[in-house]
Amino acid sequence: MSVITIKTGIVTTGRGSKLVSRRIPHNQLNQRMHFIERNRWNQAWKTEVGWLLKAQKARMPAWPLKRPLVTIILQTCHPFDQDGSNSAIKPILDGMVECGCLEDDSLEKVDLKVQQEKVTKKINQGVKIIIEPTLPL
C-alpha cells in the first residue's frame, strides 16, 4: 500500500471584502476569538482537508482506514508549543473523520504524530499530511 502525502493550500474564510486567508490552522489555546469566527475557521479547514483527501481516495484502500499512521507536519515561521500544535490540528483530524477517511480520531483508531518544521518565509508555511495505511492481518 502506498503512502499518501497531502499539502494544504491557502484556506480562506469571510464574506465580501472581508476575506481572510491562512496557511496553517489557529492555535486554539492561545488565540482568543469569537465562537462564530472559530467555527468558520474550523469548517474551512475541515472542508479543505476533506476535498484533498477525496481527490486521493483512489490511491487508498477502502475507507475508513483501519488504524493508519497519520503524520501531520505544521510548517510555520513561529512554531507552537506541544499543546498548541495538538489543538491546531484538531480541525484537520475532524475533516478526515467527516470525509470518511478515518472512522474516529481517538487514539485507539489512529496512530498520530504531530511534528513542526520551522520555515523562513510566510509563503512557505503550510500543513503536510502523511497517511500510511496499515496492512490487514
Detailed description of the structure:
- With 137 residues, the protein is an alpha+beta fold.
- It has one domain (4-132): Holliday junction resolvase RusA (60s Ribosomal Protein L30, Chain: A).
- It has three helices and six strands.
- The strands form two sheets. Strands 1-6-4-5 form a four-stranded mixed beta sheet, with no helix packed on it. A two-stranded antiparallel sheet has the order 2-3.
- A hairpin with a 6-residue loop joins β2 (11-13) and β3.
- α1 (35-55) crosses α3.
- The radius of gyration is 15 Å and the shape is globular.
- The mean pLDDT is 91.
Helices, by number, come to 3
Please identify the oligomeric state: single chain
Structural class comes to alpha+beta
Give unreliable regions as ranges.
none
Overall 3D shape: globular
Strand order of the largest sheet: 1-6-4-5
Mean pLDDT: 91
- CATH superfamily, called what? Holliday junction resolvase RusA
CATH uppermost class: Alpha Beta
Distance between the termini: 13 Å
Order of helices and strands: EEEHEHHEE
